[in-house]
Amino acid sequence: MAPNILFLAHVDESGTALPKAAYEALGSALDAAAQLGGTLTIGLIGESVQTAANSVAAGTRILGVSGEDFAQPRYASDAAAVEAICKTVAPDLVIAPGTSRFLRIMAGVAQRLRGRVDTHLTSLDLVDGVLTARRWFYRQRLEGVLQRAARPWFLVMDSGCHQAWAGTTTTAQVEAIAVQLPPEAKRTSFAGIRVPNADAQTIRPDAKLLFVAGAGWSKKQADGKTHLPEAEAVILEFLRHSGASLGGSKSLVDQTGESQAVLRFMTHLNQVGQTGSTPRHPKGLSTCCHGEEPHVVGWRFINERRAVNLDPNCGWARGKADVLYVADAFQVMTKLNSLLTEKARRISG
Ligand SMILES: Cc1cc2nc3c(=O)[nH]c(=O)nc-3n(C[C@H](O)[C@H](O)[C@H](O)COP(=O)(O)OP(=O)(O)OC[C@H]3O[C@@H](n4cnc5c(N)ncnc54)[C@H](O)[C@@H]3O)c2cc1C
To answer: Residue 146 pLDDT > 60, yes or no?
Structure first.
């Protein structure tokens, strides 16, 4: 029987659009609906959902839970909103983006509806006519292929795995679903978002390039001295020019924790690898990092890899990078910065 599919999303901080991950998950949901021959309904949550609704798949039934109580992420109100939408639609499959707001509530809502949930999914497809979801385990070393008989099945998609859906904006008809929150669902109030100052925001998931700095930047160089101020200046200048996201090796970020004088903008959040993150970017450039397996396993989803290392026998030379420049990263990055400055001058002039 053709499944009843519900796609869920929440409005982003602008209040007028959905997060990029939601348009990607919508792409997965539309593909799944086409392959399974199912009907797709869209459920939206936010203070106001009309403008965001106008930007999603035209011609699809859209339900919305809106109002001040649903402006900000909060477990009790978000879970109540998703539960109400699910009870209206009675879906077999629920497809949602893996935003922090949704990852917080989806398992709880699946439990309330006696459903099953799988998160961090990277794809949905049909295998012998059966819906099949995939995700990675053990730091992207093992791929899990999942099929389930239980319904509703909540499928929470990772970002960066599907082309974002894009279509023309129309005026959508949104069916409003009223959700009355009991006082205990409003006990948590939203105080605000604290972020590091703009200069220090070095993690950029949507960047085309991942730039990784390793412990070599903090080591004694050919003249027998360390050059940390120069390292900081060169790396920050490169990030400004390129808009790259900054990653670090464990050795480098651990030095920050041990309160040595290292790169001041580097934190454990930047760490890439087995005990760090597995970011997705089209390209990666590693500098002053040896390319050990526990680090490189975090490069699983970096398509084109280049590295700069003084050591011709480093890990990158052993099949882990497409191109290894055996060179001094201080010199290479300084030269690269001057080329980028020159290019920017030509474009603006
Ligand atoms: C269970 C476990 C989990 C781990 N998880 C992670 C993880 O998540 N992420 C991670 O990164 N590591 C992880 N590690 C540690 C990992 O094995 C490595 O120790 C670490 O990644 C090494 O960091 P590095 O390459 O920056 O430093 P180093 O090994 O010290 O290498 C520094 C490199 O810099 C080069 N260099 C120095 N100066 C220059 C210069 N001027 N120009 C060019 N190159 C230069 C040197 O040739 C050297 O290759 C893990 C280890 C274990 C056991």
So the answer is: yes
> Does the beta carbon of 331 lie inside 6 Å of ligand 1?
no
Task: Kindly give the number of the ligand 1 atom that is closest to the alpha carbon of 314.
Answer: 49
> Rounded mean pLDDT of 7-13?
96
Q: How far apart are CA 255 and CA 252, in angstroms?
A: 5
DSSP annotation of 319: T
User: CA triplet 229, 234, 239: central angle to 5 degrees?
Assistant: 125
What pLDDT shows up at residue 348? 81
Q: With beta carbons less than 8 A apart as the criterion, state whether 254 and 262 touch.
A: no
Burial label for 345, CB within 10 Å (0-12, 13-18, 19+), is exposed
- Is the CB–ligand 1 distance for residue 285 below 6 Å? no
Question: What is the H or E stretch that residue 329 is in?
Answer: helix 329-348
Q: Which of 254, 295, 326 to mutate to test the pocket of ligand 1 (most atoms within 8 A of CB)?
A: 295
